Amino acid sequence: MTHQPNGEGSADSSIRSYFMQAVHHALNDEMKLQGGHDVEAYLARLLEEFVHFDRLFGIRDAAGRRVESVAEMVMEGDIRLNAESFERERAVHRHIGDFLLFWNGVFPEFLSQLRLHNGKDVMLDPVRQGQMSYYVASTFDYDPYTEEAAIFRKLSDRFEEYCHGLRIVRASFEGLRA
């Protein structure tokens, strides 16, 4: 999954701008987490990316089927099991971290539904798995991944705080419904 912004001037740039402001407000003004501009930008791009439902479940298995359970995603990202390369391992773990951060932060009630319906994630601790997946992605600390590796370390170390920040962003969405 890539987080490439669409063309400037598009509706997506308005969404991106809104998410940048909402994330900045949540992390800086509400939570007083200063100096994380790289993480702010990453989280805003993540929210923009996951507006598109098909990107939430962006991991496919070797047969091209959409992987919907986190347990299966972990297997897809394990070089000893299904990942055909270390780059695939990194990409899948990045996606798992993003997926769990998004759901745990923006729609935590969805996680219980996911865990109940697919049965494979019943024993999953979404915080611990999100931290671990971002940690795995952070170990790819060489070009062209060096900048993101530092972001993934921060996301791993402060996963729960960033989940809380995304809950604040969600509350700002809900405030728009009035």
Largest sheet: none
What is the number of helices?
9
**Shape assignment:** globular
Q: Element order, helices and strands? A: HHHHHHHHH
Fraction of residues in helix: 55-70%
Kindly summarize this structure in a few lines:
The chain is an all-alpha fold and 178 residues long. 67% of the residues lie in helices and 0% in strands. Helix 1 crosses helix 9, helix 4 runs antiparallel to helix 5 and helix 5 crosses helix 6.
Structure in words:
- The chain is an all-alpha fold.
- The chain has a domain at 58-175.
- It has helices at residues 11-30, 37-50, 53-56, 70-76, 86-106, 108-118, 126-138, 146-157, 159-175.
- Helix 7 packs antiparallel against helix 8.
- The longest helix is centred in the middle third of the chain and has 21 residues, at 86-106.
- It is globular.
- Residues 1-9 have low confidence and may be disordered.
List the helices and strands and how they pair.
Elements: H1 11-30, H2 37-50, H3 53-56, H4 70-76, H5 86-106, H6 108-118, H7 126-138, H8 146-157, H9 159-175
Helix pairs in contact: 1-2, 1-9, 4-5, 5-6, 5-7, 5-9, 7-8
Structural descriptors:
single chain, 178 residues, mainly alpha, 9 helices, 67% helix, 0% strand, globular, disordered N terminus
